[in-house]
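Is this the right way to post structure tokens for a design question? Let me know if I should format differently. Anyway, here goes:
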């Protein structure tokens, strides 16, 4: 079982990855919003940002298996350019909207308030792995009862749950959330787990080039996937290390994790 975190610039480490070895890439890079990640990675000009994005996408593409997928998190500002580029190399399967459930409290007055992130789901080929049953959403007993008209009885979606749609309403993480770590753009585990379960097989290899607080490593640890992750900031690597050790202890897991 491969489980490695590299404190390294992904573009420097990517060449060591074997071709056709990755089942799933979960890429949550800086969005070019000027955030402080303890480095300048989110402070590139739009031109440099797009060139850098194309560079890492080009480098990672041959590492993905023919049945593999890549999910990329971005914003409406750069989704058009990034998705057009991705479509020259991959099949586009979905544009997923992450509705961050931002409370309505004023907001922008010269435009509509932006309350979502965009997630592009791309596959290497039409034979991509996808397990919808692992991410079905079960009905609560009342809703289920309300849908038991005879034509629905026995339907898989009614018994096992419906298949998630492409708008995911999950609150962004606040200090009160127990899973929250000291990272400015930590993604909710619920979102990353859904991606891991739907788009990688058990024991499959997941790659996270921009690990942040390590949410994808946690999702892999909890769901029996291998994981290779890169994070350039050593302080975030310490956060990830502590987070994984805590979860290993809670869940009584013996998995060997290497921190390089
Ligand atoms: C949007 S955050 C990822 C958040 C993560 N998904 C989570 O849930 O915590 C992007 C991360 O990429 C890191 N980063 C930026 N450039 C990098 C590079 N070239 N190689 C590796 N990590 C990088 C930043 O330090 C930052 O922590």
């Amino acid at each position: 079982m491969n489980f490695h975190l590299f404190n390294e610039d992904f573009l420097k480490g990517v060449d060591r990855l074997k071709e056709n070895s990755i089942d799933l890439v979960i890429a949550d890079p800086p969005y070019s919003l000027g955030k402080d990640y303890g480095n300048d990675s989110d402070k590139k000009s739009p031109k440099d940002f797009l060139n850098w994005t194309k560079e890492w996408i080009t480098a990672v593409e041959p590492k993905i298996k023919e049945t593999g997928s890549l999910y990329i998190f971005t914003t409406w500002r750069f989704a058009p350019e990034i998705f057009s580029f991705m479509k020259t190399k991959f099949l586009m399967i979905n544009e997923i909207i992450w509705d961050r459930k931002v409370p309505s409290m004023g907001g922008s007055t010269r435009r509509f308030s932006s309350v979502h992130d965009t997630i592009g789901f791309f596959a290497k080929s039409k034979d991509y792995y996808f397990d919808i049953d692992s991410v079905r959403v079960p009905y609560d007993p009342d809703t289920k009862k309300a849908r038991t008209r005879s034509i629905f009885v026995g339907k898989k979606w009614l018994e096992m749950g419906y298949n998630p749609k492409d708008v995911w309403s999950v609150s962004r993480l606040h200090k009160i959330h127990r899973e929250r770590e000291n990272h400015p753009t930590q993604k909710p585990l619920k979102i990353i787990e859904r991606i891991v379960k739907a788009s990688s097989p058990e024991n499959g290899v997941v790659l996270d080039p921009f690990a942040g607080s390590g949410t994808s490593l946690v999702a892999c640890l909890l769901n029996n996937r291998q994981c290779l992750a890169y994070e350039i900031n050593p302080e975030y690597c310490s956060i990830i290390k502590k987070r994984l050790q805590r979860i290993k202890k809670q869940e009584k897991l013996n998995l060997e994790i290497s921190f390089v």
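Format looks fine. Someone answered above. Worth noting: The CA atoms of residues 37 and 233 lie 7 Å apart. Residues 9-11, 28-30, 37, 39, 41, 183, 185-187, 210, 212-213, 215, 230-233, 236 surround S-adenosylmethionine (CB under 6 Å).
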